[in-house]
Write a structure and sequence with these properties.
single chain; about 210 residues; alpha+beta; Immunoglobulin-like; 4-stranded antiparallel beta sheet; 3-stranded mixed beta sheet; 6 helices; about 40% helix; about 20% strand
Length: about 210
C-alpha cells in the first residue's frame, strides 16, 4: 500500500513537471510597443498593461513606451484614465521571441453627477446668513434713486455754469459796456436807492454774525 502511494506521487510530480515544461517551452516573448491616442496619435503616458486573469503586466513610460515578458496567446488589457479599456491577444503563430505593437486607445467620456458645495456647514447657519444678506439694488431702483428730485437739486446747486449760461453772462457784460460807452459809469455810493436798501438790511440784522451750529 505504501509503495503504491509513493508510486502515485512520483507519477503526479513527473506529469506536472512535463506540463510546466511544455507550457513554458518556446512561448515566452519580449513584448514591446507604444500606446497612442486614436484621434491625435500622441503617445499616452502611464497606461496600465495587464495580462488577463494574472498579476503580470507593466506601465508605459512618459512617452507611451512599454516592454515586458509575455507569452503567446496572452490576452492583454490596456487601461488609462479618460480612455476606454481595450484588449489585445498576442498571436500564437509568431516566429521568434520578440514582438512590437502600436496600440491605439479611444477616448471615453464620463459624466459625473453635479456636486453642490456650500460654505455653511449647517442649515441653521445658512438660514442666518440668508436672512442677513444685503441684496444690492437692481438697475431700476438705481435709476429711481439717481433721478430723485432731491438728488437732482443738490447736483444742480453744485454744478458750475454750462456753455449757455456763460454765453448769456458774456452778452450781459458786453451790453453793459456798450450802454456806458463814451461816459463815466455811475458810482453807486451816491445812489440813494442803494443807501436805502443798505439801511433797511442793517435794521433787519442781515449783517449780524451768525454762530455756526
Amino acid at each position: 500500500m505504501i509503495k503504491f502511494k509513493l508510486l502515485f506521487l512520483l507519477t503526479l510530480v513527473s506529469a506536472f513537471g512535463k506540463l510546466n515544461a511544455q507550457e513554458g517551452k518556446g512561448e515566452l516573448i519580449q513584448f514591446s510597443g507604444v500606446a497612442v491616442s486614436n484621434d491625435s496619435l500622441n503617445p499616452l503616458p502611464f497606461v496600465t498593461i495587464l495580462v488577463k486573469n494574472t498579476a503580470r503586466g507593466t506601465t508605459s513610460d512618459y512617452y507611451g513606451y512599454f516592454s515586458f515578458v509575455a507569452k503567446k496567446n496572452d490576452t492583454l488589457i490596456f487601461s488609462s484614465i479618460g480612455y476606454k479599456d481595450s484588449e489585445y491577444v498576442i498571436p500564437d503563430s509568431l516566429i521568434g521571441n520578440r514582438y512590437s505593437l502600436i496600440h491605439a486607445m479611444y477616448r471615453d467620456t464620463v459624466n459625473l453627477k453635479p456636486v453642490n458645495v456650500y460654505p455653511w456647514p449647517t442649515p441653521e447657519q445658512f438660514k442666518e446668513a440668508f436672512l442677513a444678506l444685503d441684496i444690492p439694488d437692481d438697475n431700476l431702483e438705481i435709476a429711481r434713486k439717481n433721478l430723485s428730485p432731491e438728488l437732482l437739486a443738490a447736483k444742480a446747486e453744485a454744478m458750475p455754469m454750462g456753455g449757455s449760461l456763460n454765453f448769456k453772462w458774456q452778452n450781459q457784460q458786453r451790453a453793459s459796456q456798450l450802454y456806458y460807452a463814451g461816459q463815466y459809469r455811475p458810482m453807486r455810493i451816491f445812489d440813494p436807492i442803494a443807501w436805502s436798501k443798505f439801511i433797511q438790511a442793517w435794521k433787519n440784522g442781515d449783517f449780524k454774525r451768525k454762530d455756526k451750529k
